[in-house]
Amino acid sequence: MSRASLWRQLFGGERPAAEAATARETPPGAEPLTFARVTAPLTENMAAIDGDFSVEGIQKLGNPVPMLVENSGTELLELWLEPFGQDYWLQPGESVTVTSYGTWHDRPFELAHMPGQIQIWACSCFATVTFPDGTEVPGGHRRPSGMYETSGS
pTM, whole model, 2 decimals? Predict the structure, then answer.
């Protein structure tokens, strides 16, 4: 499979021209980034979870690493959790804990911030989002009306 077709399969669309043209070198001492390296935690954790995608099932993977996410701004903040693409919306002053479970390479999370949105990639592919009291935050929590809704078929 070519890099371009892998990019389309994973992310949709074409790879940005600037990124496609730039060869990324592996830093000394680091493992090269390969498809197998990226999917290894998913494969390992999927086998361990045995089809139980509940909060309790994910927690059974062990190795929890929590990260507090707080909206200290004045506007609604979207928290987008990958790799399963779930959204959570935080009011000013509201906080949740995102916890990664299972195994991963290098680090448990990757985070990107844009105005009004934080994207978190759980590198283990399995994470929970909980309120400060430990209860599960439902997907779509506080989602504004009309966001991500489709019409028709």
Answer: 0.74
